[in-house]
Amino acid sequence: MQVILLERVAKLGQMGDVVDVKPGFARNYLLPQRKALSASERNIADFEARKAHLEAQNLETRKEAEAMAEKLNGQQFVVIRQAADSGALYGSVTTRDAADAANENGFTVDRKQVSLGAPIKELGLHDINVSLHPEVDATVTLNVARSPEEAELQASGKSIQELAAEEEAAADFEIAELFDDIGSAASDDEDLAEAVEQQSEEDDDA
Predict the structure, then answer these.
(1) What is the dihedral of CA 141, 146, 149, 150, to 10 degrees?
(2) Which has the closest alpha carbon to 140: 162, 164, 120, 163?
(3) At 138, which helix (H) or strand (E)?
(4) What is the C-alpha separation between 163 and 146, in angstroms, rounded?
(5) Burial grade of 69 (CB within 10 A; 0-12, 13-18, 19 or more)
(6) CB atoms within 10 A of CB 153
C-alpha cells in the first residue's frame, strides 16, 4: 500500500515522501495517528496544496520540542518499587510509570512518547528515550529503587549488588570481631584459672 508521509517517520522517510508500507501498518498506525495519508491522486494534490503550511507548522513544533529537549535531556527521575534483595522487581516499570515520573517533576510527557528499549525488571539506573517530535528525541534516566535513600545511593554510582556486598562484608566483619572478643575472653579465663591453680599449689606447699 502506498502512503504519503505527513511527517518524518523513522526508517520510512521524510514529510512528503510517497512510500510503500504493509496495509496493516498503514491502517493500524500511520493513518489513525495522522502520520500519513493514502497516496491517492486527490490526497497527493491536497498535500501539495497544504505543503507550505504543514512545513511551517512542523518547524514551529520542532522548535518547541528542541527547547523542551534541552531541559529534559539528562534528567533523572526516581521510581519506587518493591524488589527482592537480588534486585529483581516484583513486576516491571512501564512506559506509563516513566511518563508519570516525568510529569511529577514538572514535564509534560505522554506514555506514547516513551521508549524503554527493553523491559525494566531490575533495580538500578535505566536510560530511556522520549520522542518529543519526529525529529527530536531526549534521553532521561529512571532511578528504580526500593526507597528514596536507596535511590540516592544509586544516583551516587552504587548498584544494588554493590550495596548488598558492602552490607554482607560489614556483617561478616562484625561476626569476626565477636568471635575475636569471645576468644580473647576465653583466653583471659584460662589465664585466671592457671593463676588460681598455681596459687593453690603454693599454699599447699606452705
Answers:
(1) -70
(2) 120
(3) strand 136-145
(4) 13
(5) middle
(6) 16
Is 198 buried (19+), middle (13-18) or exposed (0-12) by CB count in 10 A? exposed
Q: Which residues contact 157 (CB under 8 A, 6 or more apart)?
A: none
| Phi–psi pair at 65, nearest 5 degrees | -65, -40
Same domain, 87 and 153: yes
Per the confidence metrics, is the pTM higher than 0.90?
no
What's 38's domain CATH number?
Answer: 3.40.5.10
> What pLDDT is attached to residue 10?
85
Average pLDDT over every residue of 56-67: 95
How far apart are alpha carbons 60 and 175 in whole angstroms? 65
Domain carrying residue 88: 76-157
